[in-house]
Amino acid sequence: MWFPRCVRALLSVFIVTSSLNVFTALSAAKQPHIVFILADDYGWYDVGYHGSEIKTPNLDQLSASGVRLENYYVQPLCTPSRNQLMTGRYQIRTGMQHSIIWPCQPYCVPLDETLLPQLMREAGYSTHMVGKWHLGMYKKDCHPTKRGFDSYFGYLTGSEDYYDHIRCAPITPLNLTRCALDFREGEEVATAYKGAYSTELFSERASRIIQTHKSNKPLFLYVALQAVHAPLQVPERYLTPYSFIKDHNRRVYAGMVSAMDEAVGNITSALKQSGLWENTVLVFSTDNGGQTLTGGSNWPLRGRKWTLWEGGVRGVGFVASPLINQPGSVSRELIHISDWLPTLVNLAGGKTKSTKPLDGFNVWNTISKGHASPRLELLHNIDPLFEDTSPCNGNSWAHSGFNVSIHAAIRWSNWKLLTGYPGCDVWFPQPDSDNSESKILEMHSLKPVMLFDVEKDPEERTELSAKFPTVVDYLLGRLSVYQKQALPINYPDEDPKCDPGPEGAWGPWA
Ligand SMILES: *[C@@H]1O[C@H](CO)[C@@H](O)[C@H](O)[C@H]1NC(C)=O
Ligand SMILES: *[C@@H]1O[C@H](CO)[C@@H](O)[C@H](O)[C@H]1NC(C)=O
């Protein structure tokens, strides 16, 4: 117990120490290694400790030894969550409030944003990234190695093949779909990994970085796994325990989750074997809710990936570390993916002075000691361009006035307000249960403004706007304040120059 407190005490002493050399030398010895594992499209009901039929012994044990975050939020999509993780700022601040970055769109997280790995590097860390970037790549300045990572091994876009690492994407202005490699080692195209299943490839690479890490510097390792995003692909051996699952998608998905669970186990073992574990903080998080179209489940939450319902934004997440003051606890405090930047940089003894104003909070005392969260409010998003690309039952809003026709949601204390069409709004049945299809197709009367008490009603079943008009007014007012601060949406047309040709690889073209 005394050790982490001691680290903090030392850090505060260092902050007032005038000699920079003393600061660097001593703090370097105490700075924790930080390993951040991000899963892709991993649903609320897909982890063993939420009751899933999918087995995740490593995630269950690791989280049980740390702190499970049960009131933890992410963004509903890949790029937005990663953007907020890396900047500590809401999407409205970067003009990236709409959708993901498609391979041929010429933009990336604005280059005047300071990213998490840059701050870790400034604090004296070795910084490494393995896996999916998806924060823009049209020019080299946007790439991970130009934005704070010493090394990079992975892919720049999303949803590629797990084995051949080929990503097929439309190039609209050329009226064609291009299938090309998306895999890099540093800034170079890497062709040598064809055939290797990415979950194994990435966990091996992460383990190697850990094993070869020189312990005179603290380590910051960001592992953005491809698992468990579609396409549904997994080596046969992971499927064997799941013959009892009748639904094909769910069965393959379950195998993919098992592979991911093993990957997390392997990375943790590498940390333990290399002696780094005693001074490591490991964060595990999903990037958004599960995709029910490809095997994921967020039961009993409403909606799914791509929506502002809890099924899209309430994320699986935990922290495991011998440095936690209250190991083995469950946190029900409000925490958001934008909180990691200030939290981790502070843990690292670094500074957030060079960032633009942060939306994230330092939540380390909330996680480690069970203190109340400093976060009282959470802007889920405001996206005036939102369209659900695969509406589940045809619901959509006829756009009338400004405010409430816009796809937006905000959380304050126990309240969550949604405006516009939040996206596919059904309660998908528990996997492998006998709930009938008709339940999926049930129509719901959505209102342009909806209020839920998500503390009492996490399933968003009882709409309360008529009962609490003052709460509604207050939260609509907060949304207007945020909307006034929002940058115009940056969502450029595809640039045909992106085309790598049939033999090339996706990569920078500008
Ligand atoms: C796009 O390609 C398809 C198939 O090759 C063709 O039928 C269609 O006319 C093309 N459209 C345009 C706008 O060129
Ligand atoms: C985990 O490590 C074992 C032993 O090295 C290896 O056989 C297995 O493929 C690894 N699993 C993953 C997902 O990397």
From TrEMBL:
Domain of life of the native organism: Eukaryota
Domain annotation Sulfatase N-terminal: ranges: 32-349
Cofactor(s) this protein requires: Ca(2+)
Keyword match Mitochondrion: no
PROSITE patterns: SULFATASE_1 (PS00523), SULFATASE_2 (PS00149)
Keyword Hydrolase carried by entry: yes
Gene3D superfamilies from the UniProt entry: 3.30.1120.10, Alkaline Phosphatase, subunit A (3.40.720.10)
Keyword field: Calcium, Glycoprotein, Hydrolase, Metal-binding
InterPro entries, A to Z: Alkaline_phosphatase_core_sf (IPR017850), ARSB (IPR047115), Sulfatase_CS (IPR024607), Sulfatase_N (IPR000917)
Example GO molecular function: metal ion binding
Region (Disordered): 491-510
UniProt-listed PANTHER family: ARYLSULFATASE, ARYLSULFATASE B
Family stated for the protein in its record: Belongs to the sulfatase family.
Identification of the protein by name: Sulfatase N-terminal domain-containing protein
